[in-house]
Amino acid sequence: MLLKLENISKSFSGHQALKDVSIEIEQGEIFGLLGPNGAGKTTLIRIINQIIKQDSGNVLLNNNPITKKDIEKIGYLPEERGLYKKMTILDQAIYLAGLKGVHKKEAKNSLKYWLEKFELLPWANKKVEDLSKGMQQKIQFIVTVLHKPKLLILDEPFSGFDPVNTNLIKQEILNLKENGTTIIFSTHNMASVEEVCEKIALINKSEKIISGTVNDVRKSYGKNEFTVGFEGNLIAFTNSLWTNFELLDNKQQNGHTVARVKSTNGSGLNKLAESILPVVNIKFMEEKLPSMHDIFIQEVSGKSNQKSNI
Amino acid sequence: MNKIWLIIKREYTTRVKKKSFLLLTILGPILMAGLFVFVAWLGMEENEAQKILVIDDQYPAFQKIKGGLNIEYDYGDYTLEQAKQNFESSSYTAVLYLPENITYANSAILYFKKQPSLFSVKNIENSVEKIVEDLKLDLFKIDRETFEKVNTNFHLNAVKFSDTGSENAVDLEKNAVGFIFGLFIYMFIFLYGVQVMRGVIEEKTSRIVEVIVCSVRPFQLMMGKIIGVALVGFTQFFIWIILTLTLYTVAFQIVLATQYGADTLGPSSQISADIINQVQSNPGFNSKMLLEQDNIINRINFPLMLSMFAFYFLGGYLLYSAMFAAIGSAVDSETDVQQFMLPVTLPLVAAYIISIFVIQNPEGPAAFWFSIIPFTSPIVMMTRLAVGIGDGGIPYWEVGLSMGILIITFFIIVWLAAKIYDVGILMYGKKPSLKELYKWLKQSS
Questions:
Q1: What pTM, to 2 d.p., does this model score?
Q2: Per-residue pLDDT tens for B148-183?
Q3: Which residue of B has its CA nearest to A68?
Q4: Among A74, A99, A144, whose Cβ lies nearest the Cβ of B6?
Q5: Interface with chain B: mutation pick from A51, A103, A186, highest number of B CBs within 10 Å
Q6: How sure is the predictor about B92, in pLDDT bands with cuts at 50, 70 and 90?
Q7: Chain A partners of B206 at a C-beta cutoff of 8 Å?
Q8: Could you give the domains of chain B?
Q9: Domains of chain A (ranges plus CATH)?
Q10: Can you state the angle between helices B218-259 and B19-45, rounded to 10 degrees?
């Protein structure tokens, strides 16, 4: 389903938690909701869940204001995980699914499917407190998706998982997306954002400061730098750059030279290839885009520096 | 509605399935009964056989002193000094010294090696008293028959005047029974109220509350928990009443059996036989007391008391548990509850103390006002209710007013508590002050 947030604002006793935030998330898309701690992500998620009411703005689902019934179709994995420690997995799953309006029998079947997938079936009648931390995290993921939500909100879904299980969960998230589930993915792990998200929004100090597809965002932060790997004479290479590019640095790697060059007049990758093709043997070349990690740090610490200077 | 039912069901089943619940429910009445038996047994066990040397300064009348169960008297022709010297090495457990002036002083001295039981002392006292009485009768030339006629045991019956014509005595015993009901309400409000608070804190600290309030309104979650725990309480009462009745019946059967001489019942029958013997051989310990105890049980209107108990327990519990839920939502862990507990527990403890005074003065202004004020009425009114409602008891309008105000206050408190709860369950990190709780009240509206 299509989720649209229009001009959401919210303040708590004098503190503005969200200021005029608008976001649009398409059906079947993985949307990264990024931001430092305390930026207002959790507040935004709670507003989508209608746990708290926005002061102004609209939450629209398929262009209609969100209703209580719609919320049953949302699955939410909060950052701070929690289950009833003294309840068995089976009872817990039936209870939580029941609160989402899922019939007992359906919940049981669905639980069986997921437990089998995660190899946890023998644990179905064990209490949560008897499970290892990793298993508890898996159960938490399972109860989040048990009622087949159309919109899935995952807050730091990979925290507490080892690399093997991280991959397992990642694969399941991608599967869910393939089946048409819209996913909001909130995390500090920028590597995973580049890996799974199509679009992102970065929230800092209650405001949305960047949004768009991951590629567009990275490109817009690009500094016209390129990396070229080649075999041949470095001096000839440097000369061929002419006035369009300048060489930043170079190093020897696996028998060829890897050079970093910067465009001085906005010339692109094609122009670079054209210039150096006659003189060296190109192994690879790419435009060097800043990682989401770099962009995040630049934006967040930059903004807070500005603030602290005032 | 369906969802609140799910919550109630979960709160109920997880608690009822707990081992501690089973243990408390089944062992509770047995432990209570056991405690009574133990206390009674202690009283008897102490009652060792006494062999007493009687030293008499003047009156050979005391030669007539008769021993009873476990007490044997030896009339010795010694002076007190002689007796004292040889006491340590003798087989006597005590020396009873009856001084010359006994008919004036009305007292004697009992020297003992090991503290005799209260029961034995009373027994000896009665025996001596009887003989001193005889001595005095002789002295004043009064025959026993006349004395019995003159000897008066006066009793004042304080009776409440009621214009409907029926009369009813101010009845300390009944009020004491009422107080026990009130005491139970006091204990259970605490017991179950704190369970609600713990439940809220558990959900908050385990963060599951955030998942649940996506599916249900916080108010539903709070009420589901409160109602679920209330049902646990009623289940416990129900089992307790049945168990107590069973135990009572069984115990009664045993006492009856021993009274009619069936000594095939084993050691327990021996004990009961002893009690009966002692009672019979001891004129001071009159059996009227036993009969009266039986009476008070028959005189109380138990169906009324139990239904009133159900109402006032439910009313008081709902009122307080809503406040306990609000406290639970405001804190991050159980160690932080102290500062909020005081304002909630204070009226509860006050109600308990007030009802101790109400036993003796059930008609005073304190009794009236505190059984109207909803924060104390469940306990104070319960203490007064054993005398009944209407005719000679508490006026209907008073009980009605108390109940009505309790219900209304309950709705107001739940409404306020829900507001604090709404904000509290999603608030982490800092410990709020009472002032902040007040802010939350306004914030959520």
A1: 0.73
A2: 888 887 777 666 665 554 445 556 777 888 888 899
A3: B215
A4: A99
A5: A51
A6: confident
A7: 82-85
A8: 2-39+168-443 (no CATH), 48-150 (3.40.190.10)
A9: 3-219 (3.40.50.300), 223-288 (3.30.70.1570)
A10: 30
